[in-house]
Here is the input.
Amino acid sequence: MQFIDLRKQYELYKDEIRQEVDAVFQSCRYILGPAVAELENDLAGYIGTECAIGCSSGTDAILLALMALEVKTGDEVIIPDFTFFATAEMVSLLGAVPVFVDIQPDTYNINPELIEARINGRTRGIIAVSLYGQCADFDELTEVAEKYNLFLIEDAAQSFGASYKGRNSCALTEIGTTSFYPAKPLGAYGDGGAIFTNDGELTQKIRFLLNHGQEGSYQHRYIGINGRLDSVQAAVLKVKLRHFDEEKEMRQRVAQWYNEELGELVGKPHIREGNSSSWAQYTVRYFERDRVIQHLKDLGIPTAIHYPKPIHQQEAYADLGLDDKDYPISVSASREVFSLPMHPFLTREEVQTVAAGIKEALG
Ligand SMILES: *Cc1c(COP(=O)(O)O)cnc(C)c1O
Here is the structure.
């Protein structure tokens, strides 16, 4: 069994993908050519924002958003303690200080009620992560951001395709960022990412920043980066996006099967009312997960842990001297969660095999 089956997907879309990729090769427009512009147009239409800007990765999408908002040395940015490292890393890379906030036990997303206590004169904004494919509490987050005049970014690397109270993930805040890493819900065949916004000025600035701050050739208005989306990846993504809604439904069906088959064996994902998940991960929890993971491994069933350490425990942040007791929910999540195979092409029989394996491990 595969944790994520990328081969099956390629077999299905192979003809379309080869055609689009070959068109890029033939055009010789390898850098910021028409494939990127076409994909951006499709992405903005799909999400419903004025603008979508392709870029080199989900990590660079976060970096570019923070650069556009002029985050600098000494600024503080509030982020969840339980996320992929890149969210914190890009804040630190700009010399700013990530301020970690504990999560909610049911969704694993940042707890908006804990944010206000962490705001001070240096706080510039909040990056909320929509973890495992479920959007964070953006009504509450927007309220606190507006009250203190902070920016609010959605790190939607895992939630492309999710919705929150009838609105699309990536379009919930002034800037939304996503990733096209192959294993994400909308994956490329290499690295890629995108930034979504309705703000024309920010869009312009981000377009300059991702191309060495250039506003015209060899006219550098800002210090930027090389953060462009590759044209070949854009061609792949154009095809994948056409099939995305169908894949989203298939993932939803797989999640439903897991929900049914797992009963009360383990702590299952809790999707809040008003949310629909993109199911980047189907993550469960159990207080003795190692035993279950080992048994599944013996049966040839792969699992993964997202994530084995909260951010505040990472060695890179040792100098902040943070204490586990301030992050009880993310600490316990990091000890108990594990993710089961999740992709659109899982069969009901495979889901039953996983559930039976878990039952045996616990029995
Ligand atoms: C994957 C991921 C990223 C980074 O995306 P890349 O495309 O791998 O750079 C950032 N944040 C979260 C929450 C992620 O899951």
Summary: The first strand starts at residue 51 and ends at 55. The domain at 244-361 is CATH 3.90.1150.10 (Aspartate Aminotransferase, domain 1).
